[in-house]
Design brief:
By secondary structure, the protein is an alpha+beta fold. The protein is built from 14 helices and 8 strands. It has 3 domains: about 1-85, no CATH class; about 90-195; about 200-345, hpI Integrase, Chain A, CATH 1.10.443. The chain has helices at about 15-25, 45-55, 90-95, 100-110, 115-130, 140-155, 160-175, 200-210, 215-225, 230, 265-275, 300-315, 320-335, 340-345, and strands at about 1-5, 5-10, 30, 35-40, 60-65, 240, 245-250, 260. The longest helix is centred in the middle third of the chain and has 17 residues, at about 160-175.
Length: about 350
Amino acid sequence: MTRVRGELRLEAPYSPQLVARIRSLPGRRWDRRARVWRLPDTPRARAALHSILGIDVDRIETLGDGAGPDAPAGNACTGPGEPVPSPASTPAALHAHRDGLVLRFDEEMRLRGYAPRTRRAYTGHARRFLAEVAEAPDLAEALRAHVLRRLRREQVSRAYHNQLVSALRLFCAVVLGRRVDTLPLVRPRRERRLPVVLSRGELRRFLKAVRNPKHLALLALAYSAGLRVSEVVRLRPEDLDRERGLLHVRGGKGRKDRTTLLSEMALAFVDAYLQGYLLGNSPGRWLFPGARPGRHLNARSVQKITAAARLRAGIEKPVTPHVLRHSFATHLLEAGTDVRLIQELLGHASVR
């Protein structure tokens, strides 16, 4: 809810029940262009908002004259009785309404098709920001101070820093209605580190050190198909195209499908796992089921499996599932494979 020069503006997530209640407000009208409900700022409308939706208009800040009649409202009512602050709200107001703001942020990401894992990470960043925003003089200073606190408090990676900036930029844009280019959120400089790559000999030692048939099949697929850890754990039995020697990756990074290589070596390990380890039974929905019924193996388990195999193989290099992916790409490049084909197999948007 916002107040702009004698007018009340209400933006709300679509719900048939909520729309029916809004339609009962006196003097309301739907602004299709701005996608907000407009009401006259009168005692009657205020009383109706309080009795029907539980909104106390006296708690809502008034936007300045710079907000013209066609300016869209930058806040929302996430549910009856829980007004959300306007873009001009103070950090104290953002802190007071933090639960509603986080809920709205999650809804906005759902509407935009963000993956559940991304939504969890981004809402976590927003929640931590709103928990400590109250003392700052304005939004810009609050953002700058929060990012500096996170960087000083923890030994964070560049990837974490970049994710934090992405989450706060998106939150400010879709929930607070702020222009991203006006925010003091700077991305970290790109690192120029050489990737860790296993030699073919090290890779053979690594795979020989894996004793569990299920783990061996998983790591062999991760290497020979160049898969991300999130992709290999979500494989289904039908994703293996045995006749064509291809592996279908569904819903990879950016929710993109692609086709990559299915090597005879990896397929032999998978067959040994399916026929011996499972005694001929189907693994079910997932090729690599987890301990909980109906769930796939989680990424953290794969990281532990990889670390244990590295120690048993006596490899001093740091080995992670992503190192196997780098090794796949490097070995193809060394064998003369075109870099653009490698890009497609990896599911990269750019060759850089």
